[in-house]
# Entry
Amino acid sequence: MQYRATLWLRDSIRTIPKLQLRPTQRCRYATAIDSPELFDVVCVGGGPAGLSLVVGLRASKTTSNLKIALIESLDLDKGRMRNPSPDVYSNRCSSLTPASVRYLQEIGAWSHIDISRVQPYQEMQVWDGITGSRIAFDWEVNTRRDVQPSTIAYMIENQNLTTALQTYLEKLGDITVISPVRVDSIDLGNSTPELDLRSWPIISLSNGRRIGARLLIGADGANSPVRTFAGTTSRGWDYNRHGIVATLKLSGSGWGGEGYKIAYQRFLPTGPVAMLPLPGNMATLVWSTVPERAARLKSISKCDFLAMVNAAFRLSPVDLEYMHSVSSGQQEEFEWRVKHSAADSTKVPMEVVDVQDGSIASFPLKMRHADTYTGERVALVGDAAHTIHPLAGQGLNQGQGDVAALVSTIQAAVETGADIGSTLSLEAYNAKRYAENNAMLGVVDKLHKLYAVGSGPIVGLRSLGLKAVNEIRPLKKFFMKKAAGV
Amino acid sequence: MLQSVRYFSNARSQNHQSSVDPTEISHFNMLASSWWDPHGPSRLLHLMNPLRHEFIARCLSSQSDPATNSRLQYLDIGCGGGIFAESATRLPNTASVTAIDASPGVLAVAESHKRRDPLLMSPGRLRYLNTPIEKLPKPASEAEKYDIITMFEVIEHIKHPASFLSSAIPHLKPGGWVILSTIARTWTSWITTKVVAEDIARIVPRGTHDWNKYINEDELSTWFLQQGGWESPRSVGVIYVPAVGWREVPGSEKLGNYFFGIRKLPV
Ligand SMILES: Cc1cc2nc3c(=O)[nH]c(=O)nc-3n(C[C@H](O)[C@H](O)[C@H](O)COP(=O)(O)OP(=O)(O)OC[C@H]3O[C@@H](n4cnc5c(N)ncnc54)[C@H](O)[C@@H]3O)c2cc1C
Ligand SMILES: C[S@@+](CC[C@H](N)C(=O)[O-])C[C@H]1O[C@@H](n2cnc3c(N)ncnc32)[C@H](O)[C@@H]1O
# Structure
């Protein structure tokens, strides 16, 4: 596999026609006077993974001498959270595992987080929408009740994290941030009598600038242009599901009160619906469902939307199916049907009473895994390397795990004088992360598939549901272990 | 033991120029093109490189008096394609590296690989010379001497190691270190390098090793200490574990691959 990786860079000149510059532009830049500025590390993508990576490199003494550039097509500065209101939350939230938080603490970034907007949770209720079988995820280590309950994960707005990383990066300084500027194309360099840059990726930017990279890092998300340049295939499938997200207001701060927050997830035949706690009475929704239902949820009135969310945690799949099929009037349907439902109101999230304006959005869900994360002078991190179904809240955390591993790989290379872009230096990173991410992707994918059977005899579905719940038990251990980073 | 000392000391009477073994040089010429292929025949040398730096760091930190220089000057003898020379040049506490090899083929590879890294190309950092150590002009002053002389995986390829070492020593500053790595001449090393590495697993090409030229760690330190003017010999064995990599295994210097370091007495 590694051997192939060395070859694909050479092939990549052919395989990226759509990323190459138009011939006219090419001529303009092909002169020797216009030789690219060279960096040790060029990171494409200033999302959670890219920002965390450059911060990690800057914060470490070993790697602090590296010359680093960060390229982001969105305006990083405009994307920062400024004077946020305590009752308005972004709809893009993630649950950060203790392992991710520990890493962010280690590099010194965590203290820049607006902690008033972070919500730790101590319990997770997961149940099967068909059979009702439940499994409670609470911290296994705490078998004794009198011990302070420990945190399963921390709910945080992605923007809170990226803002903190940017603030800290500014403090650390000495980094070239190129934003808002897009990567237009990536080619390999030339050989001159003085320098042979034929193994160096040369990045052409939308502002006409050209920069060369000893090590090019693709933190550029699921459609990674860096991955395309590297010629790495990313395999997987689309789930034919959309993830609806929304910021919700509940009737109270939760059944456990402020100090003991609970996350809820119910597996419905169309996909899981999850409600995750934010500070106070706020919560964030992640509802995976088929595209038609997602479209309907986005088009119905606010009252009907609230009724659908409340129904999703309380009513039977049959009731839900009916409510999804009508174009309006979900609120009345819910009020009538909920009276006849057996749901124990304290075992489901508190009632949703409001949804923040403009916060309902949806994303297509897919599973992808790149064949390799490394090649000569290229490494992929985060969603550029893997995209996962959000049902286990692992995507961003996997990216933080990648970043921690890549930073330590680069450190080891610097300490022993290796070229940080060489395949030999980078192969340790691939070895540390590939199998681990692959296991997580596989488990989450199977979990989705176990439940995603939309038709067939009810009996079959029920037994499938039961089986799935049985299979959850070892999974529980798996997830709790991953979360703790052990 | 007796026999092996004889084997080693025999060489001392030999004519200096003859330490170069022409079949060895042509063998490495042949390997030149694949020197930097991470999955080629030199992969084991690449994987060993980080341990070399760890060993050097440990030698330097073992001395009680300050180092000869805050930024070190290296002479790397038998540098091959430049695996160690390049890496030493990149370290922040390196002033410069002079790297020499008798084989023109591998040296051409080293020169051309150096051009891939602007840092190595900056003036005065890394200099390659195609010469056997015997022909390297002797230093005219103390300032032309080196803080560290390295010879990694070289003396096992040398016909007359004692004369080879004698040619190297004048280039070292008082208080500086000679650091090398090689393979002990034992039954295990015969099996692991000749039979396993060359014949069975083919991780290094056939003909890379001549087991009769292997030198044991005690022979090396005895030779240096008998000359006088040397202190603090150190050695540690390293073992290659497939799928894991090189690991230091104290005591294994008696079995196979090992690092050796010895310090020239300060003035
Ligand atoms: C509905 C939903 C819910 C989720 N919930 C969770 C959760 O609870 N927990 C969790 O851990 N994860 C969750 N995830 C996943 C998480 O959001 C992603 O894994 C994470 O955002 C990926 O971060 P990243 O930095 O790798 O990529 P991204 O955030 O995608 O960042 C990539 C960046 O690269 C930039 N870029 C792309 N192309 C170029 C170019 N050509 N030039 C310059 N810049 C470029 C983009 O503008 C972008 O800013 C969820 C995902 C979804 C869809
Ligand atoms: C196994 S290689 C080791 C290369 C390098 N030190 C490394 O470990 O990466 C041995 C090298 O020693 C060189 N060599 C052999 N005899 C030599 C001599 N007398 N003077 C200089 N170089 C010599 C060979 O040409 C060959 O490149």
